[in-house]
Amino acid sequence: MSSPTDNAGTDAPLIVADGAAMTFPSGDVRALAPLGFGVGRGDFVSIVGPSGCGKSTLLRLVAGLLRPTEGTLMIGGRPPQDARRDDANALSFVFQQAALLPWRTVAGNVALPLELEGAGRLDRRARVKEMLELVGLAEFARAYPHQLSGGMQMRVSLARALATRPSVLLLDEPFGALDEIARQRLNEELLRLWSHDGFTALFVTHNVYEAAFLSRRVIVMSKRPGRIAADIAVPFDHPRTAALRAEPEFARLCGEIGAALEKGSE
Amino acid sequence: MTGFARRLAALVLPPLAVFLAVLAVWHVVTVRFDVPEYVVPPPGGVLDAAVKSGAKLARAAWLTGAAALCGLAVSVVVGVLVAFAFSQARLVRRAFYPYAIFLQTVPIVAIAPVIVIWVGQEFRSVVLVAHIVSLFPIITNTTQGLTSVDRNLLELFRIHNASRLQVLLRLRFPNAVPNTMTGIKTSSGLAVIGAIVGEFFTGYGESGQGLGFLIQLWGGQLRTAELFAAIFASTLLGLVIFAAASLVEDLIASRWRD
Fold it and tell me: What's the CATH code of the domain at B139?
C-alpha cells in the first residue's frame, strides 16, 4: 500500500457531499444545512464544531447509518450503503465510547467485524494478533474489557475498527472521555496507524488542538443547523511527533481554528 | 476460591443469624408459657419430628425439588422463546403481553383444579403448576435484555453488514443473558411455591408424596411438629434453589459486567 501522503488529492475525492442536508422527521429538527465538501483518498480531515452542531449526524450520513433528506453524499461515487454492501472493507466507525462487547475478550472483540463479514478462522486469528501487536495490547488478548483502563479500551476499539483494513475510518469524538495524557498518546498512536494503513480518516472532535495535531485539513462547522464556517489547511509535515505541539506555528494555527469556531458559534 | 467462599458466607451468614435468633425466642416462649404442642410445638419437638420423619421428608423434598426444577427449566425454554417473539415485533408484544400478565395475576389455586381435570394427578401436572407461576419474570427480564441493546453496538453491527441472525446470536442474546439470569433467580422461589401448591391439589397419585402432600396430610391430622418440619423443609428447599440461582447469576454477571 502506498503512503497516504503520496495519494492524497491526486485523484477525484473519495467522499463527496453535494448539498447534503439532514432534517429529522421527529419534531422537524434541521440538524444540517446543505453541505458541500470533498475528502481526498488517504486524507485526514477533522470536523470541529460546537456541541449539537450536527457533527455526529454528518458522520452517520457518511457511514450510511442515516440518509440525507436533501442532496447526496457519496463514497467512491456510490451511496455509503451501497459502498458498504459491495465492499465489506469499505468503512469502519469508532464511537465516543469504546462500545466493546463486555462478554467477549479483547481478542474476541477485535475479531468481531471479521466474523461478521465471514473471514476464515485462521485469517481472523492472524489478523487479530497483528492488530493487537500494532496497538500494543498483545498481552491483553484474553482480558475482558472491564479489566482495562479507558485508554486501553479505546485502543481495542481502534484495533477492531482497523481489523477489516477499511478504506474509510470514521471517528466520532473517540478520545473525548479520556484524560489529556491518554488523549495525546492516542492521537500519536492514531497518526502512526494512519501512516501504516493509509486509510482515509474523518475525525469529529470539539478539541481544536486535537484537530490541528491530527489532520491535514480542518473543517469548522457553525452551530445548528450546521454549515461549513471555515475550511483550514494544516501545513505541517508527516510524520508528526509530540514536539509539534510546542511549535509557535502550531499555536498560531490552533488560534486560527479557535477563532473560526467562535465566529461560527455566534 | 477464597472470594467464592467469602461470597457464599456473605450470602448465608446474615440470614442464618436471624434464623438462630428466632429459634431462641420461639423456644423460650413455648417452654415458658406452656403452649400446647398441637398449637406451637417447641423447636426441640420439631427437630425430633424432623429426625423421625427425616427419610420421608428428604424423599418428599427431592420430589418437590425435581418438580420445581423441571417447571423452572420449562419456563426458561418457553420464557426465552416468548421473549424472542416479543422482541421481534412490537405488534406481537402488544397482542400477547396482556396474557403474559394474566399468568402473573391469575390465582394459581384457582386454576390448579382445572389442571387436575386436564392433565390428571401426576408429576407433570405439578411441573405445569410450577411452570405457570415461574414463567412471567423470565419473559419480562429476557425481553428487556433482548430489546435494550446499546445503540452504538447496533450501529457497529449495521456498519459491518451484519445479518439479522448475526445481530440476534452475537448481540441480542448474549446481551440478554444477565437479564435472563435475574429472571431465573426471581422465578426459582416461585417455582418451589408453585410445586408445593400443585402438590396440594394434584399429588402424584401412586408415584410418591411431595412436601405439599405431607403438609396437607399432617395439617389435617394436627401433627403440628411434623407439619412445622415439613414447612422448614419447604423453606430450605426454596432457599437452596434460590441460592444456587443467585450464585450462577453472580458468576455470569462478573463476566458480563461492562
Answer: 1.10.3720.10
